[in-house]
Write a structure and sequence with these properties.
The chain has about 130 residues and is mostly beta strands. It is built from one helix and ten strands; from the N terminus they run βαβββββββββ. The protein has one helix at about 15-30; strands at about 5, 30-40, 45, 50-55, 60-70, 75-80, 80-90, 100-105, 115-120, 125-130. About 20% of the residues are buried.
């Protein structure tokens, strides 16, 4: 899947969810990636627990610790055509990290979520589109 990093997103995520995730990021040093999947037809999606953030300049790998509005493998979630929003929460990245990749490792690699070369920001909250 090709992906895009969104710098100034127009997102339809419940404000209370954003506030809760923002609090988790600051309290626990976690990284939040809000995702937008755009499709032209209904489809099934899921996230594998083997989804990680990889620091470009070290061996560090941040693990997926929570997913919101998307099911985990082996379950499937049906989506309508159009936009589907979900959020992924990862363990923290090292302070030295400047650029990282989001890579989902799964048995169907052609359908894996991948976002490469994400520049690190101060908030550790990111918006991407697939």
């Amino acid at each position: 899947m090709s992906s895009v990093i969104i710098e100034r997103p127009k997102v339809d995520i419940a404000p209370e969810l954003l506030a809760e995730l923002d609090a988790q990021v600051h309290e626990q040093g976690q990284v939040v990636v809000h995702c937008l999947l755009s499709t032209t037809f209904p489809t099934y999606i899921r996230i594998w627990p083997t989804t990680y953030l990889y620091d470009h300049f070290s061996e560090h790998r941040s693990e997926l610790v929570h997913a919101e509005k998307i099911t985990y493998f082996p379950n499937w979630q049906m989506t309508d055509a159009g936009n589907t929003y979900f959020s992924l929460v990862f363990s923290g990245l090292p302070k030295s990290c400047l650029v990282f990749d989001l890579i989902e490792h799964c048995q169907t690699e052609g359908g894996a979520f991948k976002v490469m070369n994400i520049p690190r920001n101060e908030s550790d909250v990111y918006f991407v589109q697939f």
